[in-house]
């Protein structure tokens, strides 16, 4: 019975976070309300407050959940050693989440653009060491002459910029695609193009 309640809470929390991503993305932090989010997720507002007592708490939870998702995308840095495999896997994972969770990427971008007012020091704690570990792996590839000499942080920024573009500027992508969402084939071509450009730029063939 206890496990059943835990599972219900987990599922409801997941639904609330996804609904909050959408509302915060569309209305911004200031324009969004707990009532809007409760309506989106299909829960009474009182139930929503049972999970998150304030809008601040829910907004922070959305941001930290997104960061955890992106950390999961980067597990390939620890699972594999081949730079071609690592970067190809990472680009695909980032592109997939840009397609499946575009609202979340927009919320994250808006928070960072404004200087991380809600995350504050939490951003340093959650992001700094994680990013430095990825940079160290790239630096080791350079030292071992497995890839061309590149600045590790710049390589990461290029990957983030090119993959998250498809989420943060999804409307622009749609407009330039004759007002149509990318088809499966177009999405796959985008993944392959970004992968090819990144890998060839560091001296690898895709």
Give a description of the structure.
It is built from eleven helices and no strands. It has 206 residues and is mostly helical. It folds into two domains: 1-53, Arc Repressor Mutant, subunit A (Orthogonal Bundle); 65-201, Orthogonal Bundle (Tetracycline Repressor, domain 2), CATH 1.10.357.10. α1 (2-31) crosses α2, α6 packs parallel to α9 (152-168) and α6 runs antiparallel to α11. The longest helix is centred in the first third of the chain and has 30 residues, at 2-31. The radius of gyration is 19 Å and the shape is globular. The model has no long low-confidence stretch (mean pLDDT 94).
Q: Characteristics of this structure?
A:
single chain; 206 residues; mainly alpha; Arc Repressor Mutant, subunit A; Tetracycline Repressor, domain 2; Tet_transcr_reg_TetR-rel_C_sf
Helix content: over 70%
The total strand number stands at 0
Number of domains: 2
CA-based shape: globular
This entry's quaternary arrangement is single chain
Number of helices: 11
Order of helices and strands: HHHHHHHHHHH
- According to CATH, the homologous superfamily of the largest domain is Tetracycline Repressor, domain 2
CATH class of the largest domain: Mainly Alpha
CATH overall fold name of the largest domain: Tetracycline Repressor, domain 2
Mean pLDDT: 94
Largest sheet entry: none
Provide the structure class: mainly alpha
* Terminal-residue CA separation: 50 Å
Low-confidence stretches: none
Strand content: under 5%
CATH level-two architecture of the largest domain: Orthogonal Bundle
- The rounded Rg comes to 19 Å
């Amino acid at each position: 019975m206890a496990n059943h309640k835990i599972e219900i809470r987990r599922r409801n929390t997941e639904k609330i976070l996804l609904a909050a991503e959408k509302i915060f993305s569309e209305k911004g932090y200031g324009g969004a309300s707990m009532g809007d989010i409760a309506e989106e997720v299909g829960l009474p507002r009182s139930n929503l407050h049972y999970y998150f007592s304030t809008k601040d708490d829910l907004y922070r939870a959305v941001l930290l959940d997104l960061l955890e998702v992106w950390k999961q995308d980067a597990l390939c840095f620890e699972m594999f050693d081949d730079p071609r495999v690592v970067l190809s896997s990472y680009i695909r994972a980032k592109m997939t989440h840009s397609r499946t969770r575009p609202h979340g990427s927009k919320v994250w971008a808006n928070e960072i653009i404004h200087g991380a007012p809600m995350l504050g020091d939490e951003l340093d704690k959650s992001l700094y060491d994680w990013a430095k570990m990825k940079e160290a792996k790239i630096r080791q590839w350079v030292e071992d002459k497995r890839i061309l000499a590149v600045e590790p942080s710049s390589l990461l920024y290029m990957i983030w910029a090119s993959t998250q573009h498809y989420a943060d500027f999804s409307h622009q992508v749609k407009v330039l695609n004759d007002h149509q969402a990318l088809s499966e084939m177009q999405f796959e071509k985008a993944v392959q193009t970004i992968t090819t450009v990144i890998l060839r730029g560091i001296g690898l063939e895709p």
